[in-house]
C-alpha cells in the first residue's frame, strides 16, 4: 500500500491523520482514492478543473511528480507521496 | 577581501569561528563584508537577527513596520516585556547592537511594497525572508529575482516548517529555482488558515529561523552545500524531517517587474467580500447598555473553547463549526447576539443562519470581543 503524507493544514480534513495508506497504481489514482475517503479535501486540493492547485505540490519520495510523469506517475506498493502546500506563517490573527 | 581587518576585540569574539579549519579567518572576513537584509523581525526574524549579529555579519538591514505586542513575546525572543509598544525594527536594532557593537544595523520602519522593495533590497547581498504573509513572500521573491539576490526562505505553520535557498547562483553560474518554481501562485484567501486556526508553537520559529540563519551564513561564506534546489521540511509533532528536490519549472514566466501583490494574492477581493456590514449588528456600547439594563437576550460565542479560556464575556459557547449541529440552542425569537474575536466569524455564522435556516433575530457584535475589551472592559485579556 502506498502512503500519502498529509500536511498539518489539511489534517483537519483527514480526521487528524498525518498519513493515509491506500491502494493505487498511479499518483492520480491515489489522489482520487484520498478524495473518496475524505471528500472535503477536494476543494482544498483541486481546482475547478480537477487539477492539483498551484499552491500545492505532490512529491513521490523526494521528486516533484511534475519532474516525473505528472499525475500518471506509477506508484509502487511501498511508495510515499507527500502533499506540500505553500505556508506563509499562519500566525496572523 | 584581504583588506577586511579585525580589531583585537573582534578576533577574540570570533575566535571560535576562526579556529574551525573549514571556516577560519576567510569565512569571518566574508561575514564582516556581507550585507544581509532580514524582512520581518518576528518569530523567524528573532533567531535570525540574533545569530547573524552574533556571528558578525557586518551590515544587517531590518524591515518591519509593526510594533511589539505582548502576544509576540511567546516566540519573538528578540524582545522583552519592556519592548511592548516599541517599533520592532528599532527594538531589534537596539538588541542586536547590544549583542555585537562591531556591526552596522539599518532599519526600515515601513511596510515592504512594490514601490520601495527594489530600492531597499538592492543595497544587500542576501535577503532572508521571515515574513508571515503571501503578498510579501511573492514580493520578496520577485525583487530578489529581478535584482539577482539570493533569497533564504523559511516559513512556519503551527508545528511545521519549510526552509530553502532560492535564486542562488553557484560558482559555475547555474541559477537555482526560486519560490515561484515551487509555488507558482498563492492560495486564495478563503483557503488560508483563518484566525481560528492560527497559532504557532513558540519554539518552532526558533528552530526554523536558526536553520535559516545557518543557510545565510553558508551562502555568504561558501562553506558547505547550501539548500539550493531543495526544500527542507520539519514536523515538530512527529520529529520527522524530509528534504525534497525542487523542480525548476521551465514554464515559470520570467519576472521583469513588481506587481500589485495584494491583488495577486486576492487580498483586496477578500476584504471587499467581507460580509461584516451586510448582517444586522450591535455595537459593544449597546451591548454594555443591554447588560446594565438586564435586558433579556441570548449571547452566543462562536469561537473555540480554547479561545474562551483566554477571555470570556459570558456567552454560550457554540463553535462556528458546530453551529449547524446545535441549532436547537439558538432561539428564533427574541434578541440573539453572536460574537467571536473580531466580528468576522460571527458575521459568517449569521449569514449562514439567515440564508439556510430562516433566522431573522440575530445580531453581530461589531468588532467582537476585541472591541469589547478595548472599549467596555479594559481588564479583559486580548489575543
UniProtKB/TrEMBL annotation, chain A:
Domain of life: Bacteria
Pfam families, per the entry: ThiS (PF02597)
Designated name of the protein: Thiamine S protein
Species for this entry: Saprospira grandis (strain Lewin)
UniProtKB/TrEMBL annotation, chain B:
GO cellular component term, pick one: cytosol
Rhodanese domain residues: 293-381
EC number: 2.7.7.80
Key words of the record: ATP-binding, Nucleotide-binding, Transferase
GO molecular function: ATP binding; molybdopterin-synthase adenylyltransferase activity; sulfotransferase activity; thiosulfate-cyanide sulfurtransferase activity; ubiquitin-like modifier activating enzyme activity
Class of the enzyme per the UniProt entry, highest EC level: transferase
A matching Pfam family: ThiF
Catalytic activity: [molybdopterin-synthase sulfur-carrier protein]-C-terminal Gly-Gly + ATP + H(+) = [molybdopterin-synthase sulfur-carrier protein]-C-terminal Gly-Gly-AMP + diphosphate
Family that this chain belongs to: Belongs to the HesA/MoeB/ThiF family.
Self-association and partners: Homodimer. Forms a stable heterotetrameric complex of 2 MoeB and 2 MoaD during adenylation of MoaD.
NCBIfam families per record: PRK05690.1 (NF004281)
Function according to Swiss-Prot or TrEMBL: Catalyzes the adenylation by ATP of the carboxyl group of the C-terminal glycine of sulfur carrier protein MoaD.
Protein name: Molybdopterin-synthase adenylyltransferase
Source organism phylogeny: Bacteria, Pseudomonadati, Bacteroidota, Saprospiria, Saprospirales
Amino acid at each position: 500500500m502506498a502512503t500519502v503524507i498529509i500536511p498539518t493544514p489539511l489534517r483537519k480534513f483527514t480526521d487528524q491523520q498525518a498519513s493515509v495508506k491506500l491502494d493505487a497504481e498511479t499518483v492520480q489514482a491515489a489522489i482520487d482514492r484520498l478524495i473518496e475517503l475524505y471528500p472535503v479535501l477536494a476543494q482544498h486540493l483541486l481546482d475547478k478543473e480537477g487539477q492539483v492547485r498551484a499552491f500545492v505540490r505532490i512529491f513521490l519520495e523526494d521528486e516533484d511528480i511534475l519532474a516525473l510523469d505528472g499525475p500518471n506517475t506509477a506508484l509502487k506498493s511501498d511508495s510515499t507521496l507527500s502533499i506540500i502546500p505553500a505556508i506563509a506563517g499562519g500566525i496572523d490573527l | 577581501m584581504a583588506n577586511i581587518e579585525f580589531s583585537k576585540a573582534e578576533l577574540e569574539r570570533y575566535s571560535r569561528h576562526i579556529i574551525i579549519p573549514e571556516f577560519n579567518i576567510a569565512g569571518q572576513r566574508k561575514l564582516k563584508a556581507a550585507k544581509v537584509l532580514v524582512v520581518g523581525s518576528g518569530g523567524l526574524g528573532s533567531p535570525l537577527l540574533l545569530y547573524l549579529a552574533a556571528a558578525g555579519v557586518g551590515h544587517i538591514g531590518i524591515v518591519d513596520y509593526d510594533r511589539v505586542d505582548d502576544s509576540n513575546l511567546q516566540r519573538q525572543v528578540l524582545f522583552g516585556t519592556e519592548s511592548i509598544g516599541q517599533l520592532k525594527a528599532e527594538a531589534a536594532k537596539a538588541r542586536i547592537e547590544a549583542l555585537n557593537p562591531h556591526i552596522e544595523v539599518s532599519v526600515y520602519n515601513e511596510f515592504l511594497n512594490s514601490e520601495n522593495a527594489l530600492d531597499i533590497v538592492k543595497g544587500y547581498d542576501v535577503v532572508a525572508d521571515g515574513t508571515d504573509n503571501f503578498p510579501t513572500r511573492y514580493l520578496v521573491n520577485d525583487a530578489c529575482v529581478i535584482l539577482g539576490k539570493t533569497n533564504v526562505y523559511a516559513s512556519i505553520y503551527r508545528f511545521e516548517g519549510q526552509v530553502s535557498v532560492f535564486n542562488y547562483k553557484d560558482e559555475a553560474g547555474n541559477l537555482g529555482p526560486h519560490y515561484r518554481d515551487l509555488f507558482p501562485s498563492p492560495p486564495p484567501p478563503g483557503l488560508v488558515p483563518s484566525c481560528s486556526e492560527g497559532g504557532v508553537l513558540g519554539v518552532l520559529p526558533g528552530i526554523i529561523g536558526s536553520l535559516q540563519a545557518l543557510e545565510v551564513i553558508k551562502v555568504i561564506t561558501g562553506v558547505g552545500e547550501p539548500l539550493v534546489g531543495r526544500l527542507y521540511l520539519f514536523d515538530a509533532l512527529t520529529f520527522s524531517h524530509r528534504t525534497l528536490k525542487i523542480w525548476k519549472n521551465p514554464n515559470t514566466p520570467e519576472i521583469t517587474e513588481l506587481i500589485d501583490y495584494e491583488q495577486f494574492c486576492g487580498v483586496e477581493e477578500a476584504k471587499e467580500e467581507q460580509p461584516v456590514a451586510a448582517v444586522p449588528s450591535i455595537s459593544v456600547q449597546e451591548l454594555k447598555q443591554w447588560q446594565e439594563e438586564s435586558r433579556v437576550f441570548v449571547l452566543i460565542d462562536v469561537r473555540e473553547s480554547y479561545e474562551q479560556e483566554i477571555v470570556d464575556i459570558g456567552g454560550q459557547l457554540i463553535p462556528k463549526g458546530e453551529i449547524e449541529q446545535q441549532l436547537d440552542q439558538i432561539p428564533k425569537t427574541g434578541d440573539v447576539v453572536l460574537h467571536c474575536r473580531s466580528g468576522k466569524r460571527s458575521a459568517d455564522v449569521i449569514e449562514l443562519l439567515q440564508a439556510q435556516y430562516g433566522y431573522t433575530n440575530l445580531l453581530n457584535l461589531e468588532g467582537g470581543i476585541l472591541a469589547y475589551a478595548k472599549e467596555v472592559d479594559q481588564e479583559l485579556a486580548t489575543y
